[in-house]
Amino acid sequence: MILPITAYGDPVLRAKAAEISPDYPKLKELIDNMYETMYAASGVGLAAPQVGLSIRLFVVDATPMSEDEDLTPTEAKTLKAFKKVFINPTIVEESGKEWDFNEGCLSIPDIREDVSRKSALKITYQDEDFKTHTEVYDGISARIIQHEYDHIEGVLFTDKLSPFKKRILKGKLLNISKGKIKVSYKMRFPNV
């Protein structure tokens, strides 16, 4: 089932999400719905707060990014295989050189900006069977995780922009929160 994506301005996007346990109601169904919602909106990641749930869960599938011509064959292969569920994740460490990459967000449609992030990270998380993993990611895979992880921490990519950029985007962000935007996917607007 395709869920409505929560738009910028909703308080759930600003809350630090809570951990969940294996007995979380209908978890498998929620994960399936999140993937279906993400695909319907042409996204590569979706966090639970983006569907109105303040829980520490996000899904990723970077397959669409694997077709970028600027990628090396190794990077393309890595992204094509990067489909995961992250439950109760904790970023243990971020490392490497900071680099800019143009980011967007399904909760903030029609806004894309360069965001600077560290190039690598180490993360501990549980999969859908609640098996614990500690893994290291770099490049675009790390970038996707950092973006989705920010969502469960109540942080949006626009928070990482300069004060000048934020002022320029203020009107667009206000319009998004009021539903004054056309999107090709289901959204839930806080101020409508």
Describe, in plain words, how this protein is organized in 3D:
The chain is α+β, with helices and mostly antiparallel strands and 192 residues long. It has a single domain (5-179), classed as Alpha-Beta Complex (Peptide Deformylase), CATH 3.90.45.10. It has helices at residues 27-40, 73-80, 139-152, 163-177; strands at residues 5-6, 45-47, 57-61, 83-105, 108-126, 132-138, 187-188. The strands form two sheets. A five-stranded antiparallel beta sheet has the order 2-3-4-5-6, with helices on both faces. The chain is globular and about 40 Å long.
The SSE order reads: EHEEHEEEHHE
Percent in strands: 25-35%
Number of separate domains: 1
Averaged pLDDT, please? Answer: 95
- Name of the top-level CATH class: Alpha Beta
Question: How many alpha or pi helices?
Answer: 4
Question: In order across it, which strands form the biggest sheet?
Answer: 2-3-4-5-6
Largest sheet data: 5 strands, antiparallel
| End-to-end C-alpha gap | 23 Å
**Runs with pLDDT <50, length 5+?**
none
Report the CATH topology name.
Answer: Peptide Deformylase
- What structural class do you assign from the helix and strand content? alpha+beta
Kindly report the name of the CATH homologous superfamily: Peptide deformylase
Q: Provide the CATH architecture.
A: Alpha-Beta Complex
Shape: globular
Helix share bin: 25-40%
User: From the alpha-carbon coordinates, what is the Rg to the nearest angstrom?
Assistant: 16 Å
Strand tally, please?
7
